[in-house]
Specification:
The complex is a heterodimer of chains A (446) and B (623). Chain A is of the alpha/beta class and 446 residues long. Chain A is built from 13 helices and twelve strands. The longest helix of chain B is centred in the last third of the chain and has 29 residues. Classes of the chains: A alpha/beta (446), B alpha+beta (623).
Chain lengths: 446, 623
């Protein structure tokens, strides 16, 4: 129940010709100008062909159609913005990620666009009554869902964060409000630093986990990676049971990232074939290689082809995945029929003969389940976005306090902003909680 | 029919910090005002520590001053050691504080009120309030039988309501040491069925200056030059003197521990709740047993006074124990005690029974301000006094209530906290209570509140002209800074290191870097040297915080549009179609004042809030 500018993917997630991302609220115009800096002029209710740019990295998102609707002449009665972009999972995710870190924006609750339309009297009473039932139903359902989540792993983790944030805020606030006191020196605020670092680290870990869990809904991402001509495209085709990738004998054929959606033992899985990882002088192939690295970063599970690469190339491959936990990598030895040794792979198979394929499937399914089960306590994209924002704010507070680059009131401000971002996951931290902590930990009182 | 001796627009009962500010505000509004107090010669007395301001409190004084209240100017005249707390931290959390000369403070306050037009001062003990048959206030009755009539009454009883003084096992009734409490009035408030409770506070002993061995103490000088409270004060002219610091010893703690059973608090004689942030020394020794010593500030009570206020030693231990533990403190070995420490218990009214104008919901025209509402501190009391006095005058004149949002001022934060959450211990202001701390600064209180006060019509000509001049200069220089611009390369040539991204930046943008000051920019644009020194800091602060403030503004707007959306007290819930009867009845009974309050009511569903919100917004648009 706030008036933030909201955004959501308005078409089903998945591969389609066009995907529509819709925004509603006062920030629509600034968002459009920020994401499409080269757009000279915005005309309401007109199609603008725009190049969308990620403002934080200046990287390319997509070429899309943008429509701006000025309040009150819009669906919700507020300023609205629609991006009609290419229906690729990667594009949609990139765009949603970019929107999620813009101040004042948040992911829409279910039915929220409609609710706003009703609030602004863009609907009649009959429609409204139907909607009201829905709002109550949704909030009940949400409450139950929230309760279910809160009773589990997330609840434990989150109440720990809450305690730690209260502790950190107590150190910061006590050094602001009780400067003249017995117990309080300039160093008191620094006591917050290790606490903030720990929460930040632990949130980042949860965020990693959240990735996998959110993908229970949108699909687990599996990247195929390896030196050129290792058989990645063949595996993709085998998995998809149809010809998606162009499979050739020429190393470097796969220049873009290809993806297929498959269902694996009931789990939605997106398999992405990436260009081979190698240094190249071919410009087009070089772009493919850098996209492959990006796909690797975004993946939940990496299938690493370890066959017939030379020592140097294998080392380069291992280097590319060195920061990933071992349970996220499956080392696959293809072309077992050519008789080489298995090079320490988790599984050996021959895509040509089908030998070993069943064992590979079993391993893949087991790993996928393990990933989703262990880390599924963040239930949806909305929670993930809240956590991401909180994490970002905490990072600023840690940096500002650690390097002394921000005055203490601004450090505290970032912690408060993080806390506000978390409010949707956990209850609000009341100033009384912080004061309680201060008075129980410090001897205050002249 | 009552026999009225005289008739006024507004009667203010009490001459403490709340009463003074209320009387002044009401009289400045043009209302015929009378201040009635036991002893007019104690008007403006500082009953506890001889200091004004601090964190949150100093902010409050600036806000009172910005609305042309009296506290800031009087404190500037009485200040004998000024310190800007948190000077090296961010400007949002800098709080002005000053030791005050009690005698000068009292005299200056009395002079201020005596000079105020429309204000009369009367001696007398108010024993009762008089209501008409509709339950509205019509006046007050004094102990000696005099009755005074008024359209509205502001009650500021401080610690006098059923006051009981504790000194060890001994108890006596009193509102301050040597002054009698208000018992009849307390009984009357109980009889009216107001929700009441009991709170306590304490004050340390007073020591004789010449009996202290100062060589055993550490000196704490004030700021040079001192930073005044009032926007109207150019320079502090009162002579400045330092404070001193000493510490308790193991022996002090031992004496206190041995005699804990004699403390009024620990023996269970006191039932009222005391403030956690202002604990007695016995409380500190018990709760922080591992601490070997505690810091004690020896604060002078004035330039000519022989008294020293040992800040940090409030206690309810009996006198012989006080003597013993004081003598165990370095510098106090031969100390002469002029007045013993005591704790005081008093009645307060649950502030949740007040409107945001500080008027009792049940008794139209009856306003409460200060400790009677569960707060502690001179500044908190004065702030409420200003709001209550202003509104009492408006009520008397048939005008609507004036309220301040918590997004706009500490005054708003305090009143919102009080009326919506009540208190569980004496309420004191902290900067951490303000969600929008970055915009509620001591340096910009005038920019936030003086225009409001001018509009309300209780601001002097002098303040108007000082304010408009400053505002003009401020906007002129900020505009200038926004127009001047340079490339990163040019900046580098002037020795200013910024990101070499090729983007032109305005002078204002440059100032938002913590490492860049106006002085640095003068090297680029010499014309900036003409910025008056007093203004330079304000401009730098504004620039440094601009990015954060934009975001806060956004949040404030969100809150105002939804959470803080006011529900008029006469709002007709029957016109909200679609509400269930149960919810409708609950809303009618509880009469929430904001959407946020409505949300807190049990059984009010998101759907019913949505229905309510739609009508409120429609009404607002129509208005």
């Amino acid at each position: 129940m706030d008036n933030a500018t909201i955004y959501a993917l308005s078409t089903p997630f998945g591969k389609s010709a066009v995907a529509v991302v819709r925004l509603s609220g006062s920030l629509c115009l600034p968002v459009l100008q920020r994401l499409a800096p080269n757009l000279p002029q915005v005309e309401p209710r007109r199609a603008h062909l725009v190049t969308l740019i990620d403002p934080s990295t200046s990287s390319y998102i997509d070429k899309a159609l943008a429509f701006y609707f000025k309040a009150p002449m819009s669906f919700t009665g507020e300023d609205c913005l629609e991006f009609h972009c290419h229906g690729s999972g990667a594009v949609i995710r990139h765009l949603l990620d970019v929107l999620s870190v813009i101040d004042g924006l948040r992911l829409a609750e279910p039915g929220e666009f409609t609710r706003r339309a009703w609030l602004n009297e863009k609907m009649d009473m009959a429609e409204a009554e139907a909607l009201l039932n829905l709002i109550d139903a949704e909030t009940r359902a949400q409450k139950e869902k929230a309760l279910r989540i809160m009773s589990g792993a997330l609840s434990n983790e989150v109440s720990r964060w809450r305690d730690q944030l209260i502790e950190a805020l107590a150190y910061l606030e006590v050094s602001i409000d009780f400067v003249d006191e017995d117990d309080i020196s300039d160093e008191t605020a620094l006591l917050a630093l290790p606490v903030l670092r720990e929460v930040h680290g632990s949130m980042r870990k949860a965020l990693e986990g959240a990735k996998a869990s959110v993908r229970l809904q949108s699909g687990l991402q599996v990247a195929l990676s390896g030196v050129p001509n290792a058989g990645k495209s063949s595996l993709l085709n085998t998995l998809a049971k149809r010809d998606v990738a162009i499979v050739t004998e020429v190393p470097g054929t796969t220049r873009d990232v290809l993806e297929v959606f498959i269902e694996l033992d009931g789990l939605p899985v997106i398999v992405r074939d990436t260009a081979g990882l190698r240094e190249t002088s071919d410009k087009v192939e070089a772009i493919g290689v850098s996209r492959a690295r990006a796909a690797l970063e975004a993946a939940d599970l990496v299938i690493l082809f370890v066959n017939e690469a030379g020592e140097a190339e294998r080392a380069a491959l291992e280097k590319a995945v060195v920061h990933l936990p071992q349970e996220r990598i499956i080392r696959l030895h293809n072309k077992a029929d050519l008789g080489a040794n298995n090079l320490g792979a988790d599984v050996s198979l021959s895509l040509k003969s089908g030998e070993g394929l069943e064992a590979f499937y079993q391993l893949l399914i087991a790993r996928a389940h393990a990933l989703l089960d262990s880390e599924s306590y963040i239930a949806n994209e909305r929670q993930r976005a809240a956590l991401a924002l909180a994490c970002q704010e905490l990072e600023k507070s840690v940096e500002g306090l650690g390097e002394g680059s921000l005055p203490i009131d601004l450090v505290a401000e970032h912690v408060h902003l993080a806390e506000r971002a978390l409010q949707r996951l956990i209850g609000r931290i009341d100033v009384e909680d912080v004061l309680d902590r201060i008075f129980s930990s410090f001897c205050i009182g002249k | 029919m009552k026999d009225w001796l005289a008739s006024f627009d507004v009667i203010v009962v009490g001459g403490g910090h709340a009463g003074c500010e209320a009387a002044s505000a009401s009289a400045r509004m043009g209302a015929a005002t009378v201040l009635i107090t036991h002893k007019p010669e104690t008007i403006g007395a500082m009953s506890c520590n001889p200091a004004i301001g601090g964190l949150g409190k100093g902010h409050m004084v600036r806000e009172i001053d910005a609305m042309d209240g009296v506290m800031g100017r009087v404190a500037d005249e009485a200040g004998i050691q000024f310190r800007l707390l948190n000077r090296r931290k961010g400007p949002a959390v800098r709080g002005p504080r000053a030791q005050s000369d009690r005698a000068i403070y009292k005299a200056a306050m009395q002079r201020e009120l005596a000079a105020q037009q429309n204000l009369e001062i009367l001696a007398g003990a108010v024993a009762d309030i008089i209501l008409d048959d509709k339950g509205e206030i019509t006046g007050v009755a004094l102990e000696d039988g005099r009755n005074y009539r008024a359209r509205s009454v502001v009650l500021t009883t401080g610690t006098f309501l059923n006051g009981v003084i504790h000194m060890g096992p001994e108890q006596s009734s009193g509102g301050r040491i040597g002054e009698k409490p208000s018992v009849a009035l307390a009984e009357r408030l109980y009889a009216l069925g107001l929700p009441m409770g009991r709170l306590k506070t304490g004050t340390p002993a007073r020591l004789h200056k010449d009996s202290i061995n100062w060589s055993e103490t550490e000196i704490q000088p004030g700021d040079d030059p001192p930073v005044p409270f009032s926007y109207l004060t150019d320079k502090i002219t009162t002579p400045q003197i330092p404070c001193h610091i000493t510490r308790t010893t193991a022996r002090t703690h031992e004496i206190i521990r041995e005699n804990l059973h004699l403390s009024a608090m620990y023996s269970g004689t006191i039932t009222g709740r005391g403030p956690r942030y202002c604990p007695s020394i016995e409380d500190k020794v018990v709760r922080f047993a591992e601490k070997e010593d505690h810091q004690i500030f020896l604060e002078p009570e004035g330039l000519t006074s022989d008294l020293i206020y040992p800040n940090g030693l409030s206690t309810s231990l009996p006198t012989h124990v006080q003597q013993a533990f004081l003598q165990s403190i370095p510098g106090l070995e031969n100390v002469k005690i002029v007045q013993w420490a005591y704790a005081i218990e008093y009645d307060y009214v649950d502030p949740r029974s007040l409107t945001r104008a500080l008027m009792l919901e049940k008794i139209p025209g009856f306003f409460l301000a200060g400790q009677i509402n569960g707060t502690t501190g001179y500044e908190e009391a004065a702030g409420q006094g200003l709001v209550a006095g202003l509104n009492a005058a408006r009520y008397a004149g048939g005008q609507s209530a004036f309220t301040i949002d918590r997004t706009d001022a500490y005054l708003g934060v305090m009143i919102d906290d009080l009326v919506s959450r009540g208190v569980s211990e004496p309420y004191r202001m902290f900067t951490s209570r303000a969600e929008f701390r970055l915009s509620l600064r001591a340096d910009n209180a005038d920019q936030r509140l003086t225009p409001l006060a001018i509009e309300l019509g209780f601001v002097s000509e002098r303040r108007k002209s000082v304010f408009s001049q400053k505002k003009q200069q401020l906007s002129h220089w900020i505009e200038t800074l926004k127009e001047l611009n340079l490339t990163p390369k040019e900046a580098q040539n002037h020795g200013l290191s910024i990101n070499q991204d090729g983007q032109r930046r305005s002078g204002f943008d440059m100032l938002s870097y913590p490492s860049i000051e106006l002085k640095d920019l003068e090297k680029v644009w010499p014309e900036l040297a003409a910025i008056p020194e007093k203004l330079a800091e304000d401009i730098e602060i504004e620039a440094t915080y601009s990015r954060y403030l934009d975001r806060q503004k956004l949040e404030v707007n969100l809150l105002k549009q939804e959470d803080f959306l006011a529900i008029p007290q006469d709002f007709d819930y029957d016109k909200v179609t679609g509400l269930s009867n149960e919810v409708r009845q609950k809303l009618k009974d509880k009469r929430p004042t904001t959407v946020r309050d409505a949300r807190e009511i049990e059984g009010v569903t998101p759907a019913s809030l949505t229905l309510l919100l739609r009508i409120l917004r429609r009404d607002k648009r129509a208005a």
